[in-house]
Amino acid sequence: MCLVLSKVYYEVIKLNTKSMFQLIDITGIVESVVEKSNIRNGLVVIHAPHATASIIVNENESGLLEDIVEKVKEFTEPGSSKWRHNRIDDNAHAHIGSALFSSTRIFPVVNGRVMRGTWQNIFFFEMDGPRSRREVVILVMGE
């Protein structure tokens, strides 16, 4: 079977973050955009156009989400004097985290549904908050 990407639909959603590190579950928003697109089969691209935030996929369980944030803090060491970027802007940790976790995720869309695993939720991962204006681009392509 050959899939022709004949239609494209997108939305840009706006988010406000309340803390330096925050995981925001955007799964329902992504699924709603896919539904509005009327695209039955194709791909959905979820992209955070920021150098200090990421899109991640994982289970929405509060303990796990806290574990992820704590591990990222441990690994990226916010406020560390060893990061050269902190000499000009005190957010090297967020740039490092974004580089490691990626700003984009892609999922198949089959029969109008985002094909994700039972425990796969889609999160915007803020690492340089709080921010009053963050965006996520959701682009659906297909037929």
Structure description:
The protein has 143 residues and is α+β, with helices and mostly antiparallel strands. The protein has one domain: YjbQ-like (Jelly Rolls, Sandwich), CATH 2.60.120. Helices cover 25% and strands 34% of the residues. It has helices at 27-37, 62-76, 92-101; strands at residues 7-15, 22-25, 42-47, 53-58, 104-110, 113-114, 121-126, 134-142. The strands form two sheets. Strands 1-8-3-5-6 form a five-stranded antiparallel sheet, with helices on one face. The two termini are 13 Å apart. The mean pLDDT is 96.
Which series of helices and strands comes N to C? EEHEEHHEEEE
Flag low-confidence runs: none
The total domain count is: 1
Q: How many strands appear in the DSSP assignment?
A: 8
Biggest beta sheet attributes:
5 strands, antiparallel
Global Rg: 16 Å
**Integer average pLDDT:** 96
Query: Judging by the overall fold, what is the CATH architecture?
Result: Sandwich
**CATH H level, superfamily name:** YjbQ-like
**In percent, how much strand structure appears in the residues?**
25-35%
Identify the strand order in the major beta sheet: 1-8-3-5-6
CATH class: Mainly Beta
CATH topology heading: Jelly Rolls
